């Protein structure tokens, strides 16, 4: 979903759209629910800190939380208007992994990351189709090039009237595509169960964070020799076993007993 569409949905669902403030950078947040922005102080009953991997809130109110770390992985993400009927999934090299996912409106989402120094998308035009065709359609103006960062979730997600969700709570590697999905789980849980319900999510956050980190060494083992070993291990692993292991992180039971699965991280 494009960011502009997300904002439109937020406005449509808001009981008071005029309370949404644009281009209003926050300069400070305190544990008693005070937010400082553009020289003014605002008091709230609950502050939901969803301010990303470089969270100002986490840095100021969780000073002992695990620090944000560089992973050494450069990333890409873009959407094309091409509608594919096949060719979806992930493609693994020894230092690069790329993924192709269908979107509900017929477009195609492409993402990837590499630890190869100096590599750009042109370095992968000789990979299997449909990837080269999708790379050819990539528009620099519509592409994001995220710097992949990670931060283990802090043991306590609540500090006074402030809670952490999303990348502010658990920035992670994109191995299983669960970063955005986990953030949506946070939001649904907070809305349905309040801060106490969110606090009980720490074991799942830690499990998915750890799984994404461990999985990245399988997806991109960093050397050709380890890549050969990885490929051999995958060939002898039964598909149901691998599918169950890889898919276990995407299964989540939503509050109220409704099962939800996010294999695409969307």
From TrEMBL:
Keywords: Monooxygenase, Oxidoreductase. Gene3D superfamilies: FAD/NAD(P)-binding domain. Residues 29-191 form the FAD-binding domain. One of its GO terms (molecular function) is monooxygenase activity. InterPro entries: FAD-bd, FAD-dep_Monooxygenase_BioMet, FAD/NAD-bd_sf. The keyword 4Fe-4S does not apply. Pfam families: FAD_binding_3. It comes from the Bacteria. This is FAD-dependent oxidoreductase. It comes from Mycolicibacterium vaccae ATCC 25954. The lineage of its organism: Bacteria, Bacillati, Actinomycetota, Actinomycetes, Mycobacteriales.
